[in-house]
Amino acid sequence: MRYGFYPGCSYKSSAGYKESVEAVNRELGIDFDEIQDWNCCGATTIFSLNNEDALLMVGRIVAIANSLKLKEIVTVCNACYTTIRKAKNIFESLPETIEPVNKRLASEGLKLEQTIPVRHYLEILANDIAEDVWRVKRKRNLSSLRVAAYYGCQLTRPWADLDHPERPQILDRFFKQLGFSVVNHAAKTLCCGAAHSLHYSADCNTLISRIIRETSNQGADVIRTLCPMCQFNLDSSQAGIDVPSVPIPYFTQLAGLALGIEPDRLGIRKLLVPLKPVL
Amino acid sequence: MIDLGLQQEFYKNGSAKEIKKCIQCGTCSASCPLTERMDHSPRELFALIRDGEMAEVLESNTPWYCVSCYYCMTRCPKEIPVTDVMYTLKQKAVEMGTEPKDNKMPDIYRSFQSVVRRNGRMNEAMVMASCGLRYPSDTFLNIPLGLRLLKRRRLEFFPQKTKGRGTIR
Questions:
Q1: What is the 3-state secondary structure (H, E, C) of A100-125?
Q2: What is the pLDDT of residues B4-19, one digit of tens each?
Q3: Separation in Å, CA of A136 to nearest CA in chain B
Q4: Chain B positions in Cβ-Cβ contact with residue A197 (cut-off 8 Å)
């Protein structure tokens, strides 16, 4: 299976996201066609400063995807996912916004010809890979590990089409299928504070401790994430707040473990709260 | 100060005029994770816009505390794109130079923007360094975290660069 892929800026330096996605891809025979010479999507930042600049940044990404004849863009980050989908929605509902973007892209010989579907890597693993493939490929029984899903904000709101904006089920369904014990809780889509965390840490720590306490109270051993920003905030803040220590692996690291991939090949050493003790 | 001219001009931006539908129910304010830090809750801010109190609105820290969680937007019973209106308010304040002085986010966003303009991509270490020059005390507090990230090889000191970065500058 081949997919057009947009890695995003935090993919490489994240806590083993790149390592685990690549390992899982190898195991399942998934290939990525990376959007060559991609740029930052602008995230929430550029939309906060200037609309035209924000549309140009996403426009360039889609234009490169067009030039490579890619059928869709797969992202691994919730912020990239929402930002690209948001701009896609603007391009489609206000087609007059495309021309100024193309004017600025012309210097590179690029042109935004058409918008294409934008999907999160979670959808590939949970929806595109058939259940019996997982059944055959699953090597390790991890039913003793109680995992809590954490979606963050931008995967399911508001331009998403993969699940309910406040009560998503896709991760729990997927992880039950992988043989994990799934913990139900009330913090699945609460906000982690996102980019405010480094400079407004006291405020964001209140948000983060609510998420960690709730999952821990419901008996979770780990919280699985699917966004580098959420992962960073939940993982890095635990040292400074009074909460039980809960590892914050990526869903791909846990999926990799279920596939029998060696933990060290999934980048789990990069997690700040270590995962090994709970395995 | 009431400025109806500026109010009408603001309504022309993006989805700003949608707030005319606001019924002041406060669902947005109740859903907001950082509403306590805001000088006006989102509901109050919309009331001020409709009163034409544009100077107060464009100097407000409210949109800058918005973390883009989009709770308000999916919950609004009148389907007002609340978060998008916050973006329009931030863009307008930047255009007019009225960003609040008591909020760090305009500087942080500019740090991010300058790193992206220089490289085409964001680099955490460079954004942290650039913000650090503006807010040394935050940098000091974040040093232990920086060291922990360094130990796990999670800081990149050589930024990834986009060849075509000139296009998006």
A1: HHHHHHHHHCCCCCCCCCEEEHHHHH
A2: 999 999 999 989 999 9
A3: 34
A4: none
